[in-house]
Amino acid sequence: MKHEAVAEKVGQRLKQYRLNQDLTQEALAELADVSLKAVKNAESGISTLSTYIAIMDALGRLDQLLAAFPDEGVSPVQLLKSSTQQKQRASGKNRIKRSDDKELDW
């Protein structure tokens, strides 16, 4: 799907959310603390992320926006890379004491 088509679909959904709550564009603009033009642009699919966030928050649907960007945490591959980095130098804290020059008993 082209970016423009996705943006248009997001705008249509915003409009439907607003209509389902029986809000005018003016009322939504006031609730979201954005301009009327910002609401109209968002419903047309032409807006900024911060405007979408404000509008979704005003509509009580911020959780749906966040669901589009789930927290993946650190990937297992990244964890493996970070935990197996080769040491570059010794700390010198672990000193081995030499025992007498006796043969080992094994």
From TrEMBL:
Residues 14-65 form the HTH cro/C1-type domain. Residues 80-89 have a biased composition (Polar residues). Residues 97-106 have a biased composition (Basic and acidic residues). It comes from Pseudidiomarina aestuarii. It comes from the Bacteria. This is Transcriptional regulator. GO terms for molecular function: DNA binding. InterPro entries: Cro/C1-type_HTH, Lambda_DNA-bd_dom_sf. Residues 79-106 are annotated as: Disordered. Pfam families: HTH_3.
